[in-house]
Amino acid sequence: MSIKRIAITTGGGDAPGLNAVIRAIVLSALNRGWECFGIRDGYEGLLAPEKHPQGGLIRLTRDYVRGITHLGGTILGTTNRGNPLRYPVADKNGRLVETDRTDELLARFKAERLDGLIAIGGDGSMEIAHVLHKKGLKVIGVPKTIDNDLDKTVITFGFDTAVHFATECCDRLHSTAEAHQRIMVVEVMGRYAGWIALNVGVSSTADVILISEIPYDIYRVAEKVKEREQNGRFFSIIVVAEGARPKTGSRTVAEKKTAGRAEKLGGIGQKVCLELEEITGKEARHVVLGHLLRGGTPTSFDRLLSLRFGAASVRALDEGQAGVMVALDPPTVNYVPLEQACQRMKTVPLDCDTILTARDLGISFGD
Ligand code: F6P
Fold first, then answer.
1. 220 and 271 Cβ atoms separated by less than 8 Å
2. Disulfide: which of 57, 116, 257, 326 matches 37 by Cβ 3.0-4.6 Å?
3. What are 59's strand-pairing partners?
4. Tens of pLDDT, residues 205-230
């Protein structure tokens, strides 16, 4: 059956480049004579119509996607709470229970006569896409996340913009750290992967980088600060991934997992800052860059990647492919089975070139 009507969803945390992907999909689809619809707020537009009195589907026209390539956020809205595989539904005692609503979702796709879906998101979104594909929907996945923790693609869009911005922030912190002879601890997002912290730390010539993949010893970090002092450098910049953990402890969790909501990380920057102040006797300050990394205009790298991913996802549907994710495999964009993309989280390999570079430059990982 040939494609006539497709839907687009953006799920999970937003990332710069989402709107560029949407625009590329819409134009590529309209240029093939297809109709294109956006689902509001992940899958909420179809699963929770009561929240969308104006309609859960948006007809995407050329006008609708005009001038959005450079904008952060997503014109469709997103959520990281409406996973149809584990949707929080109140039981008879009012307790929220994670419930599989994918059959209901598929029935809604059928009722709307949608022939295909392009799902833009991170690991959670790719898992949903895989299940919908197995249940018969033609789905193509597009990998998005500032964390860069999706497997089978060299990079996800959003990552470059996040790293670029955080690097600029560290550059700014350098001058104030030096002026006050302080330790500056910068906490960055990344969930359980240290990609953002690693790339930001090396690019901004930080002195210490703490990532999830290398448990640290705070006394080793303090040694690095003291060693710098002996060499006449009275300030230090420390980049910490939100998922970093000490050798003898666990991750710093801001909020525990609840029904339909993932565990929320955060607070490690402050912890490291206070401990270093105590051990070194030096003044320290911490900064949490947090959601600032998710905003702003995508870099040209992310825009181009997003446009390439969007167009490639429509080509895939047109060629009769389904159940695949578009992936960057330089110099081309190719397709990998969703099943493979969902198997594992992509963390930083300990022998990767960037880690080796950091070590060669004398940057400490606190190990
Ligand atoms: O996955 C993207 C991300 O920004 C992570 O780096 C971070 O841990 C999480 O989302 C934060 O999510 P929320 O929007 O729920 O605060």
1. no
2. 57
3. 37
4. 999 999 999 999 999 999 999 999 99
Whether the CB of 190 sits within 6 Å of ligand 1? yes
- Tell how far the Cα of 32 is from the centroid of ligand 1, in angstroms: 36
313 alpha carbon to ligand 1 midpoint, in Å? 25
Question: Over the stretch 47-90, which tens digit does the pLDDT of each residue have?
Answer: 998 999 989 999 999 999 999 999 999 999 999 988 999 999 99
> Residue 213: what pLDDT?
98
CATH number of 5-157+298-330: 3.40.50.450
Fold agreement between 5-157+298-330 and 163-294+349-360: yes
Instruction: State if residue 271 touches ligand 1 by the CB under 6 angstroms criterion.
Output: no
Predicted confidence at residue 15, as pLDDT, reads 98
Query: What spacing in Å lies between the alpha carbon of 14 and ligand 1's midpoint?
Result: 9
Model's pTM, two decimal places? Answer: 0.97
197 lines ligand 1 (CB under 6 A): no
Residue 270 to residue 310: CA distance in whole angstroms: 39
Question: Which atom of ligand 1 is closest in space to residue 190's alpha carbon?
Answer: 6
Across the chain, mean pLDDT equals: 97
CA of 67 to the centre of ligand 1 (A): 27
The finding on whether 123 has its CB within 6 A of some atom of ligand 1 is: no
Q: Is 147 a catalytic residue?
A: yes
Say whether pLDDT at 1 is over 90. Answer: no
Residue 217 makes CB contacts below 8 A (sequence gap 6+) with: 246, 247, 248, 366, 367
- Tokens 């565990």 sit at which residue? 263
What confidence category does residue 2 fall into, taking pLDDT thresholds of 50, 70 and 90? confident
- Would you say domain 163-294+349-360 falls under CATH 2.40.50.140? no
The token pair that represents 7 in the structure block: 């839907």
For residue 147, which atom of ligand 1 is closest to its CA?
6
Tokens of 307: 């446009």
Q: Domain map of the chain by residue range? A: 5-157+298-330, 163-294+349-360
- Encoding tokens for residue 244? 């970093």
- Residue 241, strand partner residues: 188
